[in-house]
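Here is the promised in-class demo. Please do not try to memorize the tokens; focus on the logic of going from shape to residues.
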């Protein structure tokens, strides 16, 4: 009997990797090997219970990365930025996986990339958590790794924490504080990323060498506010905050998010139609709000 293809999933104990690992685990012809720094953590044990092989691996260790990728057909890679705002670390980890993939002859890597905004705007705009991923995308392709980049829209789940509408101080309503202007912003539920990535792994010939922008839908801030108001039965308003005012809010990452919004004002390519083809069950923002009614207002 032919042995099954192995797909290694980095970040599987987190949002994106967890979604991808769960989706691929449904394919009985594939072995899912997940990477974690702590094989005893509940998220790792849960994946093991679902049939994944769980392997201790630190993305900062070339030895670990080479070890986990040995014998694999493919890999899904997501790297983190927001835990320590460390762009250099992200780039180094991405390049480590790219080098190992090349050396070991992986046939398909799906990388959670984003645009190199700094390069695209000739230095006018810097969005470090985009720029680093853009550099890694270019590196993967430049050394000839068969790779698809998935450029993932902001999670709808951001509305459960950072973007949660805030109670107004001057009346019975809530403010949605996002410097979007009138330009639609894409979004997607975390759980819907995995099935889309699994579809990409099933059609390498269609997606190798490409960047695919994943998005369930793109809405204006007024549309986001209207859906929240209608479903939650409370008035949610666009605060009309500008990027200039947003970056002065001063919390860690405020400037970066303001710049990310400035980049979204340039309408980067996110393909709603293709995303629905890759995952026909992808949820709308309205469905997301209905399912999270109790956690959406501060
Ligand atoms: N928030 C959004 O709307 C959005 C949208 C698009 C893209 N993104 C990007 O998504 C990325 C975060 O992804 P996420 O939300 O899936 O993150 P997450 O839920 O915080 O999960 C992070 C994962 O990375 C793993 N990890 C971290 N450091 C590691 C290391 N040194 N070695 C091995 N594994 C390591 C963790 O595994 P262990 O702890 O088990 O080792 C964990 O599974 C960010 O770079 C962000 O820019 C976010």
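The designed amino acids, position by position:
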């Amino acid at each position: 009997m032919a042995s099954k293809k192995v797909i290694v999933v980095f970040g599987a104990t987190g949002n994106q990797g967890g979604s991808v690992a769960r989706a691929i685990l449904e394919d009985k012809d594939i072995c899912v090997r997940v990477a974690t720094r702590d094989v005893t953590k509940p998220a790792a044990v849960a994946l093991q219970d679902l049939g994944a092989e769980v392997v201790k691996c630190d993305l900062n260790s070339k030895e670990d990365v080479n070890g986990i990728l040995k014998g694999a057909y493919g890999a899904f890679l997501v790297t983190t930025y927001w835990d320590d705002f460390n762009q250099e670390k992200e780039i180094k980890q991405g390049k480590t996986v790219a080098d190992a993939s090349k050396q070991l002859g992986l046939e398909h890597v799906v990388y959670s990339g984003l645009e190199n905004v700094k390069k695209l705007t000739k230095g006018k705009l810097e969005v470090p958590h985009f720029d680093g991923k853009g550099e890694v995308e270019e590196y993967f392709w430049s050394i000839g790794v068969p790779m698809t980049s998935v450029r993932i829209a902001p999670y709808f789940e951001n509305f459960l924490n950072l973007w949660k509408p805030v109670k107004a101080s001057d009346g019975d309503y809530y403010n949605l504080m996002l410097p979007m202007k009138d330009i639609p912003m894409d979004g997607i539920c975390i759980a819907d990323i995995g099935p889309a990535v699994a579809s990409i792994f099933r059609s390498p010939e269609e997606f190798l060498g490409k960047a695919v922008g994943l998005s369930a839908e793109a809405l204006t801030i007024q549309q986001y506010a209207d859906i929240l108001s209608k479903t939650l039965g409370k008035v949610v308003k666009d605060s009309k905050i500008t990027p200039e005012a947003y970056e002065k809010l001063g919390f860690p990452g405020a400037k970066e998010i303001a710049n990310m919004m400035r980049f979204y004002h340039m309408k980067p390519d996110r393909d709603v139609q293709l995303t629905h083809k890759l995952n026909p069950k992808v949820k709308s923002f309205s469905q997301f709000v209905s399912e999270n009614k109790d956690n959406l207002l501060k």
